[in-house]
Design brief:
Blueprint lengths: L1 H13 L1 E10 L12 E7 L5 E2 L4 H21 L3 E2 L6 E11 L3 H6 L7 E11 L4 E11 L7 H21 L6
Parallel strand pairs: 2-4, 2-5, 3-5
Antiparallel strand pairs: 1-7, 5-6, 6-7
Length: 174
Amino acid sequence: MAAVKLTIILLAAFLVGCVPPKATRAPDASTDFSAFRTVSYVVRVVPSTEYSSGDPEYATVTLDGLRRQLGERLEMLSYKVVPENGELAIDVLVKAVKPGSATARFLIGFGAGRASLTFNATYTDATGKVLGAFEGGSIAYTQMAETKDDIRHALVADCAFQLTDFMRKDSEIH
C-alpha cells in the first residue's frame, strides 16, 4: 500500500506544472547568495490574495507547508535560518492559493479545475538593498493524485524549490 501511495505522489509530481519564474526586479549584478550565512524569511498574504471560497483551511495548511519546506530547504543549503534580521531576507507574498476542482480536472481536463499556488518573492540584504525579485508558483492539472493533500504537497514542494533555486543559481532565472 505504501508503494502504491508513493507511486501516486510521484505521478502527481510529474503532472504538476511550474509557473515559469519571471524576474520582476533583476539584480544590478549577479549576487553570490552563498556569501550569506543567516537567512530570515516570511511567507505572507494580503487582502488581494486569491483563495478558494469553499475551503479556508486549505490556504492555512498550504501556507504552513510552504513555510516549513522553505525553511528545510534553506537549512539543506547550509543557511542558518533565523526568525528576523538575517543577513539575507526573503519576502514571499502569496498571490493565490487554490485547491481547484477535482471534478473539473477529472471530467474536463485541459487545465480546468487546476490547483494553484503563486507568489512574488523579493530578496534583500541586511541594509534593505533588493538583490532580486521574481514571480513564480506551481499549477497542478492532474487527477492522478489520491487526495488534494497529495496535490498540495506537490505544489508546495515545487514552490519551495523555485525559491531556493533562485539563490542556488545566484539570482539567475532560466
